[in-house]
Amino acid sequence: MRFVHLLKGDPFSWKAHEALRIATATAINAETYFVCIRDGVYVLTHWKPEALGIEDFDRFWEAVELLDRFKVVAEEESLHERGLIKTHLKVKRVEILPSERIKELIRSADFVAVW
Predict the structure, then answer these.
(1) Which residues contact 60 (CB under 8 A, 6 or more apart)?
(2) Cβ atoms 3, 110 nearer than 8 A
(3) Which of 23, 29, 73, 89 stands 20 to 30 A from 82 (CA)?
(4) How high is the pLDDT of residue 62?
(5) How far apart (Å, rounded) are the C-alpha atoms in residues 111 and 2?
(6) Residue 14 maps to which CATH number?
């Protein structure tokens, strides 16, 4: 079974935390892709959510490092549009893919959640 969790919104909302929480849980039993597009790519950067009174994502990133079935993907075009490069990303295990490859990944999924 293949799950794709597509985060397209900003990391400042509850959706980003909920998306990561659920994606981490699905990776225990299934191949899981956490795909960040549009403003969702900011969740992968070194931003400081605690400065806004929001819990950071560190515990999620630590957990996914232990899950072989969890793959983090960032859309190449979204990174480029926001002036971000791989060295700006906090998450080390991230695959950068063009939108066409992400579309293929979504088409091949058994389940897609959009956040």
Answers:
(1) 20, 21, 24
(2) yes
(3) 23
(4) 86
(5) 7
(6) 3.40.1260.10
CA distance 76 to 73: 9
pTM, two decimal places: 0.93
What is the per-residue pLDDT for 56? 82
Exposure on the CB side of residue 10, measured as CA atoms within 13 A? 6
Q: How many domains does the chain have?
A: 1
pLDDT at 63: 83
User: Residue 2 burial by CB count (10 A; 0-12/13-18/19+): exposed, middle or buried?
Assistant: middle
Residue 75 tokens, joined: 């859309």
- CB neighbours of residue 88 within 10 Å: 15
Cβ atoms < 10 Å from Cβ of 81: 12
Do the beta carbons of residue 33 and residue 3 sit within 8 Å? yes
- List the domain range (segments joined by +) for residue 70: 2-114
Tokens of 29: 């039993």
The SS3 of residue 78 is: helix
19, 34 in Cβ contact below 8 A? yes
